Amino acid sequence: MANDNQKTLENPLTRFPQPPYEKQQQPFPGLASKMNPIPDHGETSYVGSGKLKGRKALITGGDSGIGRAAAIAYAREGADVVINYLPHEEEDAQEVIRHIAESGQKGYAIPGDITDENFCIELVESAVKKLGGLDILVNNAAKQKSHESIADISSEDFDLTMKTNIYAPYWITKAALEHLQPGSAIIATSSVQAYDPSANLFDYAQTKAANVAYVKSLSKQLGPKGIRVNGVSPGPIWTPLQVCGGQPADAIPEFGKTAPLERAGQPVELAAVFVLLADTTSSYSHGQIVGVAGGYGHP
Ligand code: NAD
Ligand code: MG
Fold this sequence. Notes:
- The chain is of the alpha/beta class.
- About 35% of the residues lie in helices and about 10% in strands.
- Helix 2 (about 90-100) links the parallel strand 2 (about 80-85) and strand 3.
- Helix 1 packs across helix 7 and helix 4 runs parallel beside helix 5.
- The longest helix is centred in the middle third of the chain and has 22 residues, at about 155-175.
- The structure holds nicotinamide-adenine-dinucleotide and magnesium ion (MG).
- Keywords: Oxidoreductase.
């Protein structure tokens, strides 16, 4: 007799849109709502089971892409969530807040630029106030701008990439530390670029390698305090980052095509890993980098 609860076997190659994708570009920081196809962040598909009931999460870059997928999954698992993003992304952010509310959780939007140290401190303080504490910190926001040659990277561009991807997680983590109790989790978003950098991502790739070192060092510091630190290493994922300067426009149609799974990943395909690393059932997972890269990468 057929089992009604049986799940359909899904082919990972064809589960989501495959290349060629439409050639598209947006000005930085881009909006998920203006991409074609619109990325899948789990809005209609992620089903929670109370894994993070009562938890309080701050997610940078939670308006779109991988951060949005984490925000929706955390809310569906029972956590209240603060998202940070740039003011230009208000429309994307409000959509996330609506999904969090529809999941029966509290969602708070705190726009602001994390390349400013004072704002990073304020962000943590307001998040703690709104949530009534903090026990999950996801350092996920990043700047990625493709340059064919090192000669084309201005000191200003280089500085902005370093400030967003390395300084901000340092400032935010430092401010958050006094609020994190044993059992709390910190998660960083690194990249396959940390291990196998592309020629056109000279500055960005260095910051993603720094994110790995952040996890490896901080986990040694914070393990004895009962705070777990882990990272996620995505491969090519269909997000605004890639269509607002992260890749050359000509590379977008074939984005993800050379991965063994022959397509770009969708943000929702990272949701389970972000939940896993925040969830106390993974209490011995610490100092790890988990790959979600369609067959690329070697963390
Ligand atoms: P995304 O554009 O959806 O998210 C990045 C977010 O960073 C933006 O939404 C924006 O809110 C935030 N941000 C950038 N500069 C900021 C600033 N100065 N102040 C405040 N917020 C700022 O793209 P995404 O791909 O989901 O990126 C999330 C993470 O995933 C990044 O760390 C990125 O390095 C990593 N990653 C992405 C890919 C990919 O292919 N998309 C691959 C590997 C790693
Ligand atoms: Mg965004």
